[in-house]
Amino acid sequence: MLQIKNLEAGYGKVQVLHGISMEVPKGKVVTLIGSNGAGKTTTMRAISGMIKASSGEITLSGKRIDGLESYTIAKLGLAHSPEGRRVFATMTVTDNLILGAFPRLTGSRPKGDVAGDLDRALELFPRLKERRTQLAGTLSGGEQQMLAMARAVMLNPDIVLLDEPSMGLAPILVEEVFRIIEDLKSRGVTMLLVEQFAAAALKVADYGYVLENGRISVHGPATQLRDDPAVKAAYLGGG
Ligand code: ATP
């Protein structure tokens, strides 16, 4: 589904990613683990075209996407739920969700049933359903985070990049986010997940990569990483 080869990227003269290679197979959940500043968000941004790769190859279903604009990449079926609350504050929850489907309406992929998908998204995120007529800017931070995630799902994507979906959420909402990720997984949605809760991420994921200073240091099946003493000590609270 998604293949990354020797990806290098950064900001201006600052190189953050030093040649990373990874793969997200169809229907699988892959997690990217790493300390603050390791380059996880930068990886997501380079994949979705928010920043340009300076070198390397990114392919989506066999098609090169590095160098394409992010809107074009979205039309090809890759959704990015970015870190932080990137919602349209002065639009309602429902309108934000409908906008999430917009790239597919103008792309060559099947347009599908937007109204039906909107109903399904609201079922999946009951908190958003209760607040569907509310302006997104008036939602709590956690709710905005969920809206960003639901909007990504509205693309009906082949693959979703989820960057810290549980960031800043109360524990009960963190559980809800992981329940939603499980639910998406059971529907066969391919995901690349970055999460501060590495242990929880490795539970839902099939495979994991550890990013250290812009390089992949370890990778393997999620169950194997969960038992890896070095990974445990560094990222799973030693437990
Ligand atoms: P965190 O868990 O803290 O979000 P991360 O692994 O996602 O960390 P990145 O956000 O990818 O890390 O950041 C990697 C490096 O790139 C950091 O040193 C950061 O300061 C730098 N960086 C990130 N965004 C920018 C930017 N817009 N301009 C310049 N440098 C940036």
Q: Care to give the gist of this entry?
A:
This protein is α/β, with parallel strands linked by helices. The protein has helices at residues 40-48, 70-75, 93-100, 102-106, 114-124, 126-130, 141-153, 171-186, 198-204, 222-227, 229-235; strands at 2-11, 14-24, 29-34, 55-60, 63-64, 78-81, 159-163, 190-194, 207-212, 215-221.
List the helices and strands and how they pair.
Layout: E1 2-11, E2 14-24, E3 29-34, H1 40-48, E4 55-60, E5 63-64, H2 70-75, E6 78-81, H3 93-100, H4 102-106, H5 114-124, H6 126-130, H7 141-153, E7 159-163, H8 171-186, E8 190-194, H9 198-204, E9 207-212, E10 215-221, H10 222-227, H11 229-235
Parallel strand pairs: 3-8, 3-9, 6-7, 7-8
Antiparallel strand pairs: 1-2, 1-4, 4-5, 9-10
Adenosine-5'-triphosphate is lined by residues 11, 14, 16, 34, 36-42.
